[in-house]
Amino acid sequence: MRRPRHRSFQALLAGAIVAASALTAVATPGVADARACSNSGPIVPIPLIGRFLPKIGAAAGPQKAMPVYDSGRTKTVAWVTGPRSMNKTFGRFGVSGTDVGVAWDNGRGQTLLAFGDTFGNCLTGDQQWRHNALLRSGDQNLADGLRLDGGGYAGQMFGALGFEGIEKTTIPTAGISINGKQYVNYMSVRAWGPPSVWYTNYSATAVSSDNGHSWFTPQNTIRINAGVTVPLGAGSPSMQAGDANFQQSAYVKGSGADAGWVFQYGTPNGRFGPAYVARFRPSDILDLGKYEYWTGRGWAPTPDAARPIVRGPVTELSVNWSPVLNKYVMLDSPRGVRLRTASSPQGPWSPPRLVAPSSLELYAPMMLPNSPALRGTGPELYFNASRWDDYNVLLVRTNVR
């Protein structure tokens, strides 16, 4: 009788967390006497970046001038977020500090951007902290920066319990549009660990039918990070050992011989693991039972069979198809932003090429879908990158040729 009780407990635990995650926090708009947040928390080393920086989860601000960098191939363009950005996100959206900036096309030419832990007015008791936030852009010319649309306080996409050691926060790691609906894969962070290490409860896929204004997480999309395989039954969360390798994600739609498939790249929680890849048909994005995993020789139906396609350390990932290169492009950022290419989604992937140095202190490079290199109109690839010193998102351009 022990096994059924254990299974029931795990399913109940996952269900409780998801129910809490479905709640959207309601926060008050910034008051007239408002101030962007700055950090007074502990300072700890981040070895993959190489500097002593604020602990993960604390706003580093206040935002400084954009770091100027131009190597001839790669150039910093403009702040995307923060009080000093051209978007004035503090006054317009109540966002003084944020990171990640996962970007994808909503299927109608608008770019949606999902951010991680977000801060607003420092004078409020909770600094208007949100677990995540969504902003939008119709900007088709990124040469002079990424302009955001609209205004109004940017509320949470999905909530979290908010307790360290149980569920501290929920952070988007990948986004994609399929048949008019928006899908975001996110991780439920249980606790922050040593530098560049964090511990997750699960990853899951949230879906929106109204262009990101509201989100719902089906329980059967949850991948519990337990390191063991236990069958939980149809409609329940997945609990397989291999799910630990898909706690953070990146999506890309297949091209050429891979057309008709969507590929999900996965890494374990933190910034030290290797990368894996799964594939599924677009209509099956919410059905983990129909995913297939690359084994090194072929595709298998369980995550336990997946084998690495890129050796670690691999950090937060972004993957896209470039018609200019006729290859898939991958970005990550241990000690600077690196670029790899491959002719097929599973690789083999090229050795990494450094496109932005570690001195810029950038992490989580997320490609912009309307980059010329991704549209086939030029070699310029634009990506969002977060910067710890300012805890805000910066637009960077590189030449993929």
UniProtKB/TrEMBL annotation:
Keywords: Signal. Residues 1-27 form the signal peptide. Residues 85-397 form the DUF4185 domain. InterPro entries: DUF4185. It comes from the Bacteria. Pfam families: DUF4185 (PF13810). This is DUF4185 domain-containing protein.
